[in-house]
Design brief:
Layout (H helix, E strand, L loop, with lengths): L4 H22 L1 H4 L1 H16 L4 H18 L12 H72 L5 H33 L7 E3 L1 H12 L6 E3 L7 E4 L1 H18 L4 E8 L2 E8 L30 H11 L3 E6 L6 E8 L1 E3 L1 H6 L1
Parallel strand pairs: 2-4
Antiparallel strand pairs: 1-3, 3-8, 4-5, 5-7, 6-7
Helix pairs in contact: 1-3, 1-4, 3-4, 3-5, 4-5, 5-6, 6-9, 7-8, 8-9
């Protein structure tokens, strides 16, 4: 059976009272029993900041009895001979109890304020998210509807190349719409804990190359040189496709420079580095990059603030870690992803 939390707190409080009372008893002639009362009140007040109401009430009563028995003359008895000491003991007991109740109320007020602040923060985040999401969804939907209507109404008048351009716009908008909806579903999967990686032997070079060819076929700002020494890795190819897609899309959205992708492996630890040539990120905001709905202040519109939070969730599902850091040798932000993997060099033997 598990010990109830308040019993543990009561035991801890008793030990703390003993540690305070022991030196006070040794130096009782120097301190005097009135000073000891103040020290015990301070001790009970400090414990009231963290303990539950029941153990702290018991400890407050216990401290009064200990003070009476060991410090108020005559010692080692609960008898109090002086009317002044009787009044002092009564005041101690009342003050200790009232102090406990007040501290409890203060803690409740602080907790309520924290919950309210967190609620307001959450509402602000969701408001920002839905405003951004409505914009992100409205644009591809409008493109699809507009291009489809143009094809339907002016099909006979449009040149073949114009029809092809409209179809490409519909396809591009459809892919963008699919990505946004997929991100929302992915966040739901991550929060529900239903995400289970499907481990299989994969060529990381092929995964990254395939992601870039499928999602960024004409993007000349992306630079990826395959690591020919890379072995096969046992991982989830689908998750890595989404990881690379979200990181690269984020880098292209918020920077105007090139994006560099590097892959390496050491001691069964797969490392993928994606670096951009943008202005970087203030050091104080590096950790918040991976929070849901977070977007850097004063950045251009676009994006829902879900991409990097999904990346972090996927990497943690693979038992790995991701870190954002500013580059020292050149301007830009680097995302370093490290994942433990099982490796197999059969692909290299086959090539040889």
């Amino acid at each position: 059976m598990q010990t109830k939390p308040w019993i543990k707190q009561l035991g801890t409080g008793v030990v703390i009272l003993l540690l305070v009372c022991l030196p006070c008893f040794i130096f009782r002639d120097v301190l005097g029993y009135r000073v000891v009362a103040l020290l015990l009140l301070m001790t009970v007040s400090i414990m009231a900041m963290t303990f539950e109401i029941l153990p702290i009430l018991i400890l407050a009563a216990l401290s009064a009895l200990v003070w009476n028995f060991f410090f108020i003359p005559p010692l080692f008895t609960f008898h109090i001979s002086s009317p002044e000491d009787i009044l002092l003991f009564t005041m101690y007991f009342v003050i200790a109890m009232v102090n406990v109740v007040f501290m409890r109320r203060i803690r409740k007020i602080e907790q309520k304020n924290q919950e309210q602040a967190e609620k307001e923060r959450t509402l602000t985040l969701y408001s920002t998210f839905f405003n951004s999401l409505s914009h992100e969804l409205r644009t591809p939907i409008a493109t699809i509807i507009g291009s489809a209507e143009t094809l339907q109404q002016l099909k006979e008048k449009l040149a073949p190349q114009e029809q092809t351009d409209l179809l490409q716009q519909i396809e591009s908008a459809g892919l963008q719409l699919h990505l946004q909806v997929n991100n929302i579903l992915n966040v739901s999967r991550l929060e529900s804990g239903l995400l289970a990686p499907k481990m299989e032997w994969c060529d990381i070079n092929e995964i990254i190359h395939g992601t870039l060819q499928h999602h960024f076929p004409d993007q000349r700002r992306i630079h990826f040189t395959p690591n020919e020494q890379l072995p096969l890795c046992q991982t989830d190819a689908g998750l890595w496709d989404q990881i690379v897609l979200n990181v690269v899309k984020n880098a292209l959205l918020y920077t105007q420079g090139n994006v560099y992708i590097e892959v390496a492996i050491s001691n069964d630890l797969l490392e993928i580095s994606i670096t951009d040539e943008g202005p970087g990120v203030p050091d104080a905001q590096l950790e918040t990059l991976f929070e849901k709905f977070y977007r850097l202040p004063q950045t251009q519109t676009g994006g829902t603030g879900l991409g990097l939070s999904i990346v972090k969730g996927y990497i943690e599902a693979l038992q790995g870690s991701v870190k954002a850091q500013n580059r020292s040798d050149r301007s830009g932000l680097q995302l370093l992803m490290q994942i433990p993997v099982k490796t197999n060099y059969l692909n290299q033997l086959k090539n040889e």
